[in-house]
Structures are given as C-alpha cells and as structure tokens.
Specification:
The protein is α/β, with parallel strands linked by helices and 472 residues long. It contains 20 helices and 16 strands. It is globular and about 70 Å long. It binds pyridoxal-5'-phosphate.
Length: 472
C-alpha cells in the first residue's frame, strides 16, 4: 500500500535525522505520541497543520536576511522576500490591516518591536532621531545621555497580571517592567470584569504614553472601541496584544467593538496560539507607525527566521479559508460548553463563564492551590496550567487558578458533547484530590488518576491527532 504524502514526508524526515542523531528522531516521534495521547487544555497551545510544520524544515533556515524587503543587509534574499511578502499580504488581508510586520520570533519580540516603534514615534527626542540606524555613528556622548533621559521612565498602563494581563505589559520580571514606569488596571472584584470607568480614571491620573489591552488569562471579550476612547482622552497610543485571541479575530468571531484592528494604533500577536500557525510573532499597524515597526530588525530582533516566515505564510493562507471561521466559532462554543459543564457540577469560574477560548477555574473552592490542581490533573492525563486569579491569595507561583482553553482540542475535532465529558473528568479529579502538607503537595488515589487517564484517552480515540500522519 502506498503511503500518503504527509506520512512519507514525516517518515523520510525522521529517517534522515535518525542517521545523524537517533535520540533526536526518537524524541520527535515520542512528542507526537505524547500529544496524541494527552487531553491538551493549555489555552496557549494548538496543533499546526502538516503544511505549516513542513514549511519550517528546510534551507530557508540557513539564510540571513536582516533588514526588510527591499532594504536588506545581506545579498541573495529574493526568495526570503517572496515568503515575507506573502506572509505580510495574507496577514493584511486576513486582519484588514494597512501594514503587517511578520519577522518577530515570538510574542515577546513583537511587543518589544511595538514598544520601540511607539517610543520612537511619540517621544520628542532629537537624540533618538539621530540614533535611528543610519545616523547612529553621529551620536555624541551627550546625545547618548539625552537619549537615555528622554526615553527612560515613559509610562505604560496595562492589565494587571492577576487579572489576566501578560508579563510583557510592564511587569518587573520582563524587560518592559524595567523600561517603563508601569501602572496596571484590574478587574471589578465583584464581577471579575474589566471596569472601563476604572480604566478611564487610572488613565486620567497616570497619563500613560501607552495604554495596553490584551491578556493571557481573561475569559471575556474586551471592548476595544471604549479602550481607544480612553486612550484618546489622555493622548495615549493604544496598543492591543491579541496573542491569545488572534484566531478569534481572524475567524470573525470577534468583530465590531471587539475586533482590535480598526481601533488600536498598533496590534501585536503570536502566531502559534488560537491562530494555529508556527511559533512566532507579528505586528499590525497603520501607515503612521509602519516605518518604525519595520526597523524591528536590527533594533530589537536578530535576523529574521525565513523558514518560520514561510510557515506563517502557509498558516495565514489557511486562516483565510472559510473553514477557519467555522473552526474559530467552534473554539468559542466548546469553551462555553466546558464552562457550563464545570459550573453545573459546582466549579467556581472567574467571571462566571467565558466568551472567548479560555476558562479560569478558581480551585480554592476545591480546597486546592493551582499548583496542586495542575499536578493532580496531569497525573490523570489532563494537561492544563496553573494561573493566578484576581487578588490571588496564593501569589503567582502556587496560584489559586487553573486555566483551560479549547483551541487545541477543537483542532482535533472534539465538540460540545466531549467538552461536557471533559468537565466531568476535571471535576472528578479536583473533588477527589486533597491538599497535602504544603501548597505543592496533594493526595490523589493513583487508581483514580489511572481511571481518569484511561477515560481521557478514550475520549480522544475518535479524534486522532494528525490522522494522515503514520510514522509506522
Ligand atoms: N503576549 C501574550 C498576551 C501572551 O499570552 C504571550 C504568551 O504567553 C506572549 C505575549 C508571549 O509570547 P511568546 O511566548 O511567543 O514570546
């Protein structure tokens, strides 16, 4: 029997790798087996298509292409130009953006590109003007001092970490928290929802240069029209980091006030979460910021990864197909079914539910920390991650929450009935786990963990991962 193209491609790749370092080939095969067997509920993960994966494994990886299309610091970039232009074109068309910069290697990098573009655009700094790549050698020692003084201590207002914001939105462990004087807005303690009046008040008091919206663990839509009005009222640049929900924007689940692209001055994203592309980042903006954004390399980024840009072009082409909109809608339907299934069984959810791809369970109701719950679920074949809840009593390490998301399982084809079954499995594990002698220790009967693992894998048998890929 002849093998299909996907099986042939991956088998051949592994054979070639195995001839050099068999342990790497084995680990790649084992990773597929692990992913096939686990009930993956990590909200930031997905399964890229075989075409996207294969677009990364080639000689584009060998090419240096610093600069941008038409302004490269290296010769012989015509083929890189082709894939970079394709990825950017698909991104512009998909999101309705005037400009797309597809070089960032990750979401963090995309945010750094955006921050520097905003600083360069907004801060009145003659020294900075000189410091743009081509005049950098003209800078005197006094210019450098001026530049640091002028750029330092600019203000950023972003969503607080425990309310679901991201480290890169001005928090201390990240460079953004060292670059900016940061203040954060939280959520209403009673509802868990963003209180826009509160954001407006914080903006009025703090007068940020940048207002950031976007999140990693907020289970609701954000009204970007209102956020833009707030930004405008204080003269801030409005930036949206849509890393988590880009797939829902691409699939037109988030439209109107909930689509960030028409409302924000600049939008950043990852390409590997709900958007289902390769690991990477991207920046979208209007013509005003385009030149600054295109300076991302070498300002902030090293040489672009042409093989990943090729894969971005493939994944973005996939996201422009009509079936992607159906996929995006199913992500949200599944998250809602999961939330309803958990609530019906007595779980306490932050904000009481979801209207995006993720659900945040407050596990203090089960007498557990997030760390204990995460490990107990993992023992039972359910992969999630712990996450802080608003005003978390257990801090950012142990936490009091479990974040779960549906992009990956939806890619496998699971639907709302399976989400209800998943809610049952999660609830069973959490009710049967008891807290141990520390915030990390817990007690769970191994027989029960095995039973749930078996049920979780049974749930997946009718939804094979990469069904066309047979590694033999
Ligand atoms: N922004 C948000 C909102 C995120 O959730 C993440 C990742 O979790 C990032 C940025 C960073 O992305 P990356 O891990 O690709 O650097």
């Amino acid at each position: 029997m002849s093998l299909n193209a996907e099986s042939t491609a991956f088998r051949s790749a592994l054979e070639v790798i195995r001839a050099v370092e068999p342990r790497v080939a084995d680990a790649i095969g084992a990773e597929l087996a692990d992913q096939r067997e686990s009930l993956k509920l990590i909200a930031s993960e997905n399964y890229a298509s075989p075409a996207t994966l294969l677009a990364m494994g080639n000689w584009f990886s060998d090419k240096y292409a610093e600069g941008t299309i038409g302004r490269r610091f290296y010769a012989g970039c015509q083929n890189v130009d082709t894939v970079e232009a394709l990825a950017a074109e698909h991104a512009r068309e998909l999101f309705g953006a005037a400009h797309a910069y597809v070089q960032p290697h990750s979401g963090i990098d995309a945010n750094l590109v955006a921050f520097w573009a905003i600083l360069a655009d907004r801060v009145e700094s003659p020294a900075l003007k000189k410091a743009q790549v081509r005049q950098v050698n003209d800078l005197t020692e006094a210019d450098w001092f001026a530049l640091r003084r002028e750029l330092g201590n600019q203000r950023m207002l972003g969503m607080s970490l425990d309310a679901g914001g991201h480290l890169t939105h001005g928090f201390r462990p990240n460079i953004s928290g060292k670059m900016f004087d940061q203040r954060s807005y939280g959520t209403d303690p009673a509802t868990g929802l963003i209180d826009y009046d509160n954001v407006a008040e914080a903006a009025r008091e703090f007068k940020p240069l940048i207002l950031v919206a976007g999140y990693s663990a907020y289970p609701r839509k954000v009204n970007f029209r209102i956020m833009r009005e707030i930004a405008d009222s204080v003269g801030a640049t409005f930036m949206v980091d849509m890393a988590h929900f880009a797939g829902l924007v691409a699939g037109k689940v988030f439209t109107g006030d909930f689509d960030p692209v028409p409302h924000a001055h600049i939008v950043t994203t990852t390409t590997h979460k709900s958007l289902r592309g390769p690991r990477g980042g991207m920046v979208l903006c209007g013509p005003e910021l385009a030149d600054q954004v295109d300076r991302g390399c070498p300002m902030v980024l090293g040489g672009p990864l042409p093989h990943v840009m090729a894969a971005k072009a493939v994944a973005l082409a996939e996201a422009r197909r009509p079936d992607f909109a159906d996929y995006a809608q199913r992500i949200v339907d599944n998250a809602r079914a999961l939330a309803e299934g958990l609530t019906r069984r007595g779980a306490k959810l932050v904000t009481g539910g979801t209207d995006n791809h993720l659900v945040l369970i407050d596990v203090t109701g089960y007498g557990l920390t997030g760390r204990q719950a995460e490990q107990a679920l993992l023992d039972s074949g359910i992969v999630t991650n712990r996450n802080a809840v608003p005003q978390d009593p257990n801090g950012a390490w142990y936490t009091s929450g479990i974040r779960i998301g549906t992009p990956a399982l939806t890619s496998r084809g699971l639907g709302t009935a399976e989400m209800d079954a998943t809610a049952e499995l999660i609830h069973t594990v959490l009710t049967q786990t008891t807290s141990g002698e520390s915030k990390a220790k817990y007690v769970l009967d191994p027989a029960l963990a095995d039973k749930v693992s078996k049920q979780a894998s049974d749930l997946l048998t009718t939804f094979p991962l990469y069904p066309a890929v047979d590694l033999g």
